[in-house]
UniProtKB/TrEMBL annotation:
EC number(s) given by UniProt: 3.2.1.-
Cofactor note: Binds 1 zinc ion per subunit.
Family to which the UniProt record says this protein belongs: Belongs to the glycosyl hydrolase 38 family.
Record SMART domains: Alpha-mann_mid (SM00872)
Domain Glycoside hydrolase family 38 central residue range list: 455-530
Organism, as annotated: Medioppia subpectinata
GO cellular component, one term: lysosome
Keywords: Disulfide bond, Glycoprotein, Glycosidase, Hydrolase, Metal-binding, Zinc
Superkingdom of the organism of origin: Eukaryota
Bias kind Low complexity: ranges: 99-112
GO terms of biological process kind: mannose metabolic process
Name listed for the protein in its UniProt record: Alpha-mannosidase
Amino acid sequence: MNSYRNCWEIKYVFVNTTTCPIPSNFSIMNGQLHDKSVHYRESSSSGRFCYRRCSSKRSSLKRSWTVYLVLLAGIPAQGQKIQNTGHVDYFKTTLIPSPVSPTPTTSTTTTPGSPPQSPIKPVVNHHRCDNSRCTAPVPTKLNVHLVPHTHDDVGWLKTVDQYYYGSQSHHKVAGVHRCCGQSTGGSSTSSTAFFWKWWRDQSEEHRTQVRALVNEGRLEFISGGWVMHDEANTHYQSIIDQMTWGHRRLQDMIGPCVVPTIGWQIDPFGHSRESAHLSAMFGFDGLFFARLDYQDKKLRSAEQRMEFIWQGSGDVGRSANIWTHVMAGPLYGPPTGFDWEGDGEPIIDDPESDDYNVNRIVDKFLDYVSNYSANYATNQLFIPMAHFHPIQSANNWFTNMDKLIRYVNGRQRNGSNINVFYSTPTCYLSAVHQSNNTLTTKADDFFPYASDGNTYWTGYYTSRPALKRYERVGNNFLQACKQLDVLAGMGGVYDKEVTALREWQAVMQHHDAITGTEKQHVASDYALKLAKSIAGCERVVNRAVAKLAAKSMANRTVQSLPEQLFCQQLNVSACEWTESLNTSLAVTVYNPYGQPVRHILRLPITNRSVQVLDPTGAAVNQTYVFPIPGPVLSLNERDSEALEELVFEAPVPALGFVTYTLKLQDADDSPIAPVVRKVVGDFSVQTPGFDVFFDRNGRLQALRFRDSGRNVSLRQEFAYYSSHSGTNSGPDRASGAYIFLPEPKEFATDNVIAPADCNYRAQVVESPVLTEVHHYIQKYLSQVIRIDHRSDTIEIDYTCGPIPVADESGKEIVFRWQTDLNTGGVFYTDSNGRQTMRRRRDYRPTYKLNVTQPVSGNYYPVNNWIAIWDEVAGLQLTMLNDRAQGGTGFREGQIELMVHRRILHDDGIGVDEPLDEPGVDGNGLTIRGRFWLQLATVAAATELHRELANRLMMEPVVTFNRLAKGQAPHYYKKHRTNYTALYNPLPRNIHLLTLERWANRTLLLRLEHFYQWNESREWSAPARVELRDVFREFVVYDAVETTLSATENILTTRRLQFRYTNANNHLSQAFNQTHRFEPKRHELNTTDLSVIINPMEIRTFIVRIKPKYYCNM
Ligand SMILES: [Zn+2]
């Protein structure tokens, strides 16, 4: 029996507490009724609460639920509609179970597990694997599952709103109606972003109908993310956030029974191992996609391996496995000739008509499915029936599909073995599961994706580099905003602002957003919307920082707190507040990371007479004034008078802030100006671990370990690939937004970017704590190498653009670091910023690669880091970046990263625009970016780059307060200037991945172990965290662990299990990716709310909290 049938919901509780006694197990907080024994969720309308309690045992429900309630709605009993409820006064009643009809369950699917142990409460129950609505396949026939779906891009050729408010939206609604009218089931694949827009326009009656369709299993949501995320350029934190928000909104709209169980990634241009891992953690039973390398596809088709078990992680074991289906047809569209908005011939079945064509069309379809079935190992066949974009004419589609089904099945009377019916991905998966065949496994990923020998989809790893950086800025700010909203106890006042950024940040993960494969006006719209929603979240940060900084409780509620100001243009060294300093300015640095950090502030100033006071009010001794590099000063985007930056270091506690004060003062005590000198000969700079050598042109030459004396040659080179300008007919492909195709002659020798006037111009800026080498290479290319004398990480800060194209040739700019390390063509890249993937020149782990593109075929996505090792020497060079980029290490001892592309041709994939970003003045886009270079022993390297990668994703947020003359001492008296929200920093291997408000006094909390099991002797060990002992601001008194997107109780989630062989296939290699670690999972201890987290685990909790001061009262 499916446990959801005993799931009860009490909706819309309006309590009249003045006339009714309050039962003892209820409490009043904030004027709202709370029952500690039930999970509750605030609905979208203020004052409405949805209380749920779920159990698979009716008897226990009866016993425990002498309930004080208003109205019952047994949610998902088959055929029962959710009742619309109204205002009702509070009264006492007992629970009356809704009628439960016996339901057939297929023996092939797993049934939900036993009820959770007290006191853990389930979050929801739902009809996972309730396939009673699926058409039963006929075991002796070839069963053809026709799966109608739509593919709606959340921005691509049009903006999000242009797509939604275009004529398509009305037809899409019609499509939902029509598909779901089939008694045999239907599915909707709309991104939740669009569905949410649509939902808000619907009447309550219409919404009730949709809920009923879902609850009855006739309408299914698959994937359910806010968007269908890209897998190459996305960071795992943002993938998780966007999927969580999509699922959350689905549940807000439909109710608990809507939890998607299918991952649907049909359009992204290659697929990552980490995304597969996350899909398993979202609770998906299976994953469907369409794009994989043409050589891989050919082999898999021939060997009937288009379905397999993808082992998503080598660290967390079998729970990361996910059944995967690759579509063998022309992408995810219908068979050729069956697109009833394209090439499809309408089925004319009037025998009297001269155009009667039933037999011809049925023959064609039977031929197609017979051939298509050769790709798959079972007698189930999945045929997607779709259009690239929203179905315009649903009736047309369904009328023809109805006929197709009728006439194809009619042939069975003549002995046809083919049985065709409407289906859903879930029903198909259930049927395949029933076949119980043994699958092969896959442990690496599907990058790079080539659709033919000249069409490597590796350009989009770098396309639109400014937008890719802005997405990271958005994520950083979103995390800080969500955290501060919680820590300051804003109680939902700013939900609108937080959600706006949450939703646009989610949109940015779409496979035509962060990828840079949208039209220019769409990219501009994404950036504008992101900027507006960041501005909204500034209001949250403003109030939260002000509230947390107030020393007295009374001050936390008054409105006269100082306003926090922001400088969002520090990336071009511009800041209105520091430049116009005329008395004093409080500078607050909030650290969203769960460890203390040392943050170096670089604040543009126009007056050197500045004194810096630390959080205790004492003067900071080591403050410096560094010149802003010339190429930055001349940026067209820059609106600033500042020529210099004030530089000082601020140690910031974990999840907390410090406030420094800048004060105008007498010129005598000005910060120290470093020595600026021209480079005239070789020189070196010291870090704690290295001597860093430069030549007389200021070029990096080598690093010498100071302890061992070992020297590693390290030369930097700048180059570009000329973009191939093909016709896009036949094999003559052009380089473009998606595709990277350099001119063929450049495979061996390419265009090294030489200095503008044959001389490198460099100057060294030296201070006791920091040395900078300013390096001018060309008008469009410059960099600053920054060496912090207290750190072994070297920062490279570059400015690139506008790329010159006067020669009418597109160019794709790369940075290279050439070492003398022996790498054998092997290099390592991250997978969505998480797992490490081993790459090898001209090689794929599961098939023999025919090398057609020696450069672009060796490019891989780099989200956070790329590394090379010398295994004999035991050394690793790692480059970290500040945004997603394409990179490679196929040349011996070298790392290459592509930073910018400007292309004058379109690549014929669909954007139909050249990737020629205009920049602010129409002359071409200039970007600024940073790299961090780390050289270390292999044993130490991972600890360095894992921690830095986390810190770069969660950089401090800086806010400013203008203080009137003489107000500074006052500020110190009235405000906290050094604050942490944590009792202790988290264990060093644990990352506070998510902290956000989930409902009233309820938070979503994610903790992550960010090491793989074999990476660090010390930090790859499991770590224990007690949830009660983490936060100072509130008491965590209850917690439920959920799936990764917070939809189901982890203890009741049961995913489908499949039979598989361990061998990858006959080409399997002894790769570290095939080695799997099967750790013992530790469940949340519900007594002390402690949890032990294994390497690479992400644990998601819904926690209930009380403000700290409540306990003291
Ligand atoms: Zn798409």
